[in-house]
Amino acid sequence: MLVRVLLVKNKMIVLVANTSWSVFNFRGGVIKRLLNSGCFLTIIAPADEFSDKLRAMGCNVIDLQMSAKGTNPIQDLKLMYTLYGLYQRLAPDFIIHYTIKPNIYGSLAAKLAGVPSLAITTGLGYTFVNSNLVAKVARGLYKLAFRYPKEVWFLNEDDRQEFLQHRLVPDYKAMLLHGEGVDLKHFAPQFIGRVETEINIAKPIRFLLIARMLWDKGVGEYVAAAKLIKQRYPQTIFQLLGACGVANPSMITREQIRSWEEDGLVTYLGTTDDVRPFVADADCIVLPSYREGIPRTMIESASMGKPLIVTDVPGCRDVVIPDQTGLLCPVKDAGALAHCCETIINMDAEQITKMGLAGRALIASKFDEEIVITQYMKTLNRYLS
């Protein structure tokens, strides 16, 4: 390990993403390891409330003006030249890009600036869920840009194969990273829910969906399943946790969520900086998403010993062993989702606990943050040596 530390010591590493929030919440462990190894770390991302938290960790943070979902080609070219100018001024030793626009325009800017880079696709999103003109253009841009990074990492094998089949990335560059890792100590089982502490008292089962409030996350199917379940099990609780009204073509408005609440279908919990109390209080965590990279909230919830219900789609299926750690259901099928919820409702406390602990074991073997950090460090040492 000493050799690895020395190779990154005094090197300038730059991370580029579409939000400071995602850098802080998803890559905090990697950042700590890099800083402790003696490198200089700069974060380039749009400013938000997490920018100062990154500075407090010891990072240099640069505000990036970027519309993550915009499709204006002039603005995108401006983004590329902005990044090119920053890379020339900073003269980093290595750059890591996350999400679609930094991956495309950042990779091109890094090539122009003569700086080696790594691209990490955190999920394919609308690029592959849809087949419209914007998606086709995005694929073409990926193919152009991904000629230049040293490696391109994918969070699940389905996404990697999708890029290879479309010939968007050379085979020798396409690597697999099993999610972005979870801190097993931070997301530890806390058996404080009703199932454990009040085992002899009949309590309604509590389902929880944690995600941005988007149709593509399967929120509509979740609400429809709640309506079906409540016809037979009216006391069952369905909760939503996550931001609504976000800038996304698949956005769900606060007014829509309020309408569901007024109908008695769901309870909206808003947003939080710490999901653990909400996860601990739930019996089962649900994500009926149309497609994911690796759903962070699902590996965090499984790490806390909670059973999962997820759709049988790329990314989601990677975090569940069917009928052992959770349940898989077909995508965009509210009836099937309701059936999965009913299966959980009819389990006893011992079965729910057993399923949750099996999920914890799966996460420890496959998604431990230390595994992810080791891959980062080995890769950086390989290209910085």
UniProtKB/TrEMBL annotation:
Q: Where are the transmembrane segments?
A: none
Checking InterPro entries in the record gives: Glyco_trans_4-like_N
The entry's keywords: Transferase
Q: Which CDD domains match?
A: GT4_CapM-like
Any one GO MF term held by the record is: glycosyltransferase activity
One Pfam entry name: Glyco_trans_1_4
Q: Which residues form the Glycosyltransferase subfamily 4-like N-terminal domain?
A: 13-147
Name the UniProt record assigns to this protein:
Glycosyltransferase
The organism of origin for this protein: Aeromonas hydrophila
